[in-house]
Specification:
73% helix; mainly alpha; 4% strand; 2 strands; two-stranded antiparallel ribbon
Amino acid sequence: MSLLVWGASLVAGLLGALTGLGGGVVVVPLLSLVFHVDLRYAIGASLLSVIATSSGAAAAYVAEGWSNLRVGMLLEVATVTGAICGAALATRLPAQALSVVFGLVLIGSVALGVLRHRDGGEPPGDEDRLSRWLHLSGSRPGPHGRVPYSVRRVPTGLGVMWIAGAASGLLGIGSGALKVLALDRVMRLPFRVSTTTSNFMIGVTAAASAGAYLARGFLDPALSFPVVLGVLPGALLGARLLPRARGPALRVLFGVVVTVLGVEMLYQGFAGRT
């Protein structure tokens, strides 16, 4: 079983790095639906894998100049606060409710139109006052040098990030789907900058949540060990493939992964199989 979990986690890490979701969004339903692991232990293992995904992918993205570190560090204030609140609530909800919330969060991110955003940088000069004051706008790699983009609607982005952090603490998914939603649709960062900045952020958010699960005994080393060892190399591989991947293809992959996993978790929650 450990070998099977390792192989499946390798694929989860690859998908997580390519889409900005984090490997945890695949690991939780995988462990729960395929390997019949108790949902809370699956969430605990997922949080550790999310930390591994962020550690593996974020370093490469930062070195290549994709991640916006100023935006990531500012938004972490909101996500960590939300993560602590979500983790405190998680142990007080039944497993069926957690599964339903998991599915709704994933499907909701697609319904809000993440896939419709254009790829590429926004024209400079349209940043809001707070973004200008904090110097949040930046540039991304392009075929002929750096391409500038603007950061917008920072207060709204902070609010969505608090919800993303709460989802991470509650569901153990790293909340990459909501982070990409906030960065891409709300704050208008280019899609690849959104996914790479999301990967930079999810590890810190997951670490804030993992402490609560550790204190309540929901971290099983025998389960978490093969998950982390699988997700980490998958994330490194995904980080290498991302610069050569096409933006539209990434958005399609993002939508398919989120929708399928969301439907699976909704069915599991309503059927009472957690």
